[in-house]
Amino acid sequence: MSTARMEPAKPPFGESIQTTLDRLMPPGVPPLVLFTTLARSERAFSRFMAAGLLDKGPLGLREREIMIDRTCARCGSEYEWGVHIAFFAKRADLSNEQIAGTVAPEIDAALWSESDRLILKLADELHEASTISDELWAELSGTFSDEQILELILLSGFYHTVAYLTNGLRLPLEGFGLRFPERT
After folding, report:
1. According to a count of CB atoms within 10 Å of the terminal CB, is the N or C end of the chain lower?
2. Percent of the chain with pLDDT strictly greater than 70
3. 3-state secondary structure of 12
């Protein structure tokens, strides 16, 4: 693993940054390297945190995590994929096979429900073409509300930004973060 291109900020953090970190991180878990690196700039940190979509919204945890995990995998962000798998995969009821399936080049229909497959297809289309085909749009709108579709698109875009940060800064993997599974 390459050395990070930018040193994270060190505590003590400013009051607003510390308050946000305390709210985001579970007790006893130090702040993510991504967060402390962003904390070098209070402006960048606050704008990034304002765009977060991990609160209760129109999507369930499983739907949200499938989009995030697939997007991070497609972008090659092992850092963010590993953090999300470690923190959320079990709570999102993702099996080990489904976790590996978020990284697999092809979607294995046998692993996923129809709505899960639509989310994976959406992540793939947005990643590959930055748009949504009419065929997929018709399928999505038959399964998800407009608000849910908007949220899925926003998640994809936000986690592309996260991947740009984690990959571009060459952030070291978190000690608890999982690694991409070996492809067979």
Report:
1. C
2. 97
3. coil
Identity (one letter) of the amino acid at 88? F
Which of 7, 147, 1, 174 is CA-nearest to residue 79? 174
Q: Kindly state the tokens that stand for 69.
A: 């995990």
pTM for the complete prediction? 0.94
Distance CA 158, CA 115 (A): 21
Residues 6+ apart with CB under 8 A from 90: none
Q: DSSP string covering 111-173, please?
A: GS-HHHHHHHHHHHHHHHHSS--HHHHHHHHHHS-HHHHHHHHHHHHHHHHHHHHHHHTTPPP
Query: Which amino acid is located at 25 in the chain?
Result: M
Taking the CA atoms of 6, 8, 10 and 11 in sequence, report the sign of the dihedral they define. Answer: positive
Whether residue 1 is predicted with pLDDT greater than 60 in this model: the reply is no
Q: Following CA atoms 60, 106, 75, 133 in sequence, which dihedral angle do they give, to the nearest 10 degrees?
A: -70
Token pair recorded at residue 158: 């936000």
Buried b (16+ CB within 10 A) or exposed e, 137-159: eebbeeebeeebbebbeebbebb
